[in-house]
Amino acid sequence: MDQVLELVSPHTEELLAEVPVSTPEQIDSAVATARAAVDSGPWPLLDPTERIAVIRRFLDAYQARGGEVAELITAEIGAPISFAKRAQVGLPTAMIGAFCATAQAYPWHETRPGFFGSDIHIRREPVGVVAAIVPWNMPQFLTIAKVVPALLAGCAVIVKPSPETSLDATLLVEMLNEAGLPPGVLSVLPGGVSVGERLVGHPGVDKVSFTGSTAAGKAVAAACATNLTKVSLELGGKSAAIVLDDAAPAAVAAGVRSASLSNSGQICNALTRILVPAARQQEFVDALAAELDGITLGDPTDPGTQMGPLVSRRQQQRVLDYIRIGQAEGARLVTGGDGLPDGIDRGYYVRPTLFADADNSMRIAREEIFGPVLTVIGYRDAADAVAIANDSDYGLAGSVWTADTTRGLGVAAQIKTGTFGVNQGYTMDPFAPFGGVKGSGYGRELGREGLEGYLDTKSIAVTSGV
């Protein structure tokens, strides 16, 4: 019998489905079919407006089935249904329309006067076969952020979803193919690490777009180097919220809760280091604790639930281990900690947890926990806050909270991250590029830059007939 993935409900701990793992032969076949689609098929040769029309048909189908997609994600990863509808499906819906608008206005061809007198024709052409490696935490958002711009560029795409979210990935690919993609342009390969490794290292792949941990990203980059395969990496984060001395504690606490604990804290750009003026630390700690204690945990299918379980027992154990590490390191546990929430006797739940009196050298301040754990760190002055925020291996996102937005923009300019928010967590605007620096990777998704990541630029010098 072929190997299968067992998908388990993080809320009930019961089996949801079994999905066959892609075999090496199926991986090779998918790459060969995609290769034929870009080397001799019609898709890359279509006028961009024709590709846009296909994606707009997909958008219609996606909107019609959005409720079904949201329910599937809630079942797979335990995201509250309200969050699944708003973010897991609502954000991707906005992105599809934004990418179509970006592609419609994009200068696919242009002519420039050359320095030596010849006209220079600039063509943007599809990079070729794309392997899209997607994690489980925001599966539709992250898949669409890769697949839609790649298709609009004229590429063929092979999606390798996370094992936990194979079902919604398969549904997404089905909807796209039904929108009118030629055969072989888009496929999905369920499986674990071995499937991803074979796909990433395949000589028939022209580009890898990977989202995941920094450790896995380094392995992907090394594998791509062997074949000089293009690669973009959106990796981990340990983002800081810099709270200036003129900020209101209640407003900051509400904003940080939204930016940090959505999806049970399982978001790469979560604000997990909360930097506050040392002299006012207790005010902000009290406000944050009140916000965390007010979160409703429980059945993710209940519209009143604000936080569901973590995705798996392994992830639950990882987060609980970090909570114990924080206590052992000497940080003060303010609220949360070990043990299931009241009234819950099963499922991979972790209570929203807040540490205070922490130091930026602690592991809970330096390592990505990927769960509902916040760490408050005091600072002396604004320069010290900037130094602490930048003292990280990561550089994905961050924020500053202040009554003076001009002052906030001045702080934003000093932080070494790819994205940043003033009085908000980063909003993932579909018209703006998203990505990191340092250990958070390279390359950008979303916006015009997200489309250009799937294009090669060709220059053609032209001299009049001789």
SSE map:
Layout: E1 4-8, E2 15-20, H1 24-39, H2 48-64, H3 66-77, H4 81-105, E3 109-113, E4 119-126, E5 129-133, H5 139-153, E6 156-160, H6 166-178, E7 186-188, H7 193-200, E8 207-211, H8 214-227, E9 230-234, E10 239-243, H9 249-261, E11 271-277, H10 281-293, H11 313-329, E12 332-337, E13 351-358, H12 363-366, E14 373-379, H13 382-390, E15 398-401, H14 405-412, E16 421-422, E17 441-442, H15 447-452, E18 455-462
Parallel strand pairs: 5-6, 5-8, 6-7, 8-9, 10-11, 10-15, 11-14, 13-14, 15-16
Antiparallel strand pairs: 1-2, 3-4, 4-18, 9-17, 12-13
Helix pairs in contact: 2-4, 2-5, 2-6, 3-4, 3-6, 4-5, 9-10
Task: Give a short synopsis of this structure.
With 466 residues, the chain is an alpha/beta fold. It contains 15 helices and 18 strands. α4 packs parallel to α5.
Question: Can you describe what's shown?
Answer:
- It is a single chain.
- With 466 residues, this protein is of the alpha/beta class.
- The protein has two domains: 4-235 and 440-462, Aldehyde Dehydrogenase, Chain A, domain 1; 239-430, Aldehyde Dehydrogenase, Chain A, domain 2, CATH 3.40.309.10.
- The protein is built from 15 helices and 18 strands.
- A seven-stranded mixed sheet has the order 12-13-14-11-10-15-16, sandwiched between helices.
- A hairpin with a 6-residue loop joins β1 (4-8) and β2.
- α2 (48-64) runs antiparallel to α4 (81-105).
- It is globular, with a radius of gyration of 23 Å.
- It starts with a strand and ends with a strand.
- The model has no long low-confidence stretch (mean pLDDT 96).
